[in-house]
């Protein structure tokens, strides 16, 4: 991941789920990183959500996004 520039707006886009969470990182509308985070599927839903929460806290600290977007799922 490139270091965020001082005049750069960084966006973290999330496709959140409890077993696989996808993410993309944009600097000024340019894709600079993407990937997935996998939780342990043998854990309870609560434990998997906690794994996602801990990963997200670390990602926010490391990548320092200015904005975070989360996919809207309509049921």
What's the quick description here?
The chain is of the alpha+beta class. Helices cover 25% and strands 36% of the residues.
Q: What this model shows, in words?
A:
There is one protein chain. The chain is α+β, with helices and mostly antiparallel strands and about 80 residues long. The chain has 1 helix and 4 strands, in the order βββαβ. It is elongated.
Provide the spatial order of strands within the biggest beta sheet: 3-2-1-4
Q: What is the domain total for the residues?
A: 1
CATH topology: Nucleotidyltransferase, domain 5
Strand % is: 35-45%
CATH superfamily: ATPase, nucleotide binding domain
Low-confidence stretches: none
Tell me the distance between the termini: 34 Å
Q: How many beta-strand elements?
A: 4
Helix content: 25-40%
Could you spell the SSE succession in H and E letters?
EEEHE
Averaged pLDDT: 91
Helix/strand layout:
Layout: E1 10-15, E2 20-27, E3 30-38, H1 45-63, E4 67-70
Parallel strand pairs: 1-4
Antiparallel strand pairs: 1-2, 2-3
Please describe the structure with a list of short key phrases separated by commas or semicolons.
75 residues, alpha+beta, Nucleotidyltransferase, domain 5, four-stranded mixed β-sheet, 4 strands, 25% helix
């Amino acid at each position: 991941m490139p270091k965020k520039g001082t005049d750069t707006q960084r966006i973290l886009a999330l496709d959140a789920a409890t077993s696989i969470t996808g993410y993309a990182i944009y600097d000024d509308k340019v894709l600079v990183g993407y990937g997935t985070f996998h939780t342990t599927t043998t854990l309870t839903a609560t434990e998997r959500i906690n794994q996602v929460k801990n990963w997200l806290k670390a990602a926010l600290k490391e990548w320092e996004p200015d904005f975070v977007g989360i996919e809207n799922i309509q049921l």
